[in-house]
Design a protein that fits this description.
about 80 residues, mainly alpha
């Protein structure tokens, strides 16, 4: 039988890892925004938030590079 403290520890660990993955995602988005801004494709603030302007800039990049146009940071887009 799992005790309440064990359950709380499991929940805390899960929240910690979700927080880490969100932080990493925000850093990736921020890096991508800066690269796109440097290339003249992103006009918003470099803030790590994936919003409509970020997706539009990703689509512009994908068009320029002849990639599948998704507006998402798929593996092919990140690799290029």
């Amino acid at each position: 039988m799992v005790t309440i403290s064990r359950r709380l520890a499991n929940v805390a660990a899960a929240l910690f890892f979700v927080g880490l993955s969100t932080l990493a995602a925000d850093q990736t988005i921020q890096s991508v925004q800066q690269v796109l801004k440097d290339q003249g494709l992103y006009y918003g603030q470099v803030n790590g938030e994936k919003n409509a302007e970020t997706a539009a800039a990703i689509r512009r990049y994908q068009i320029r590079k002849g990639l599948q146009i998704t507006g998402e940071l798929d593996p092919e887009t990140l690799k290029s």
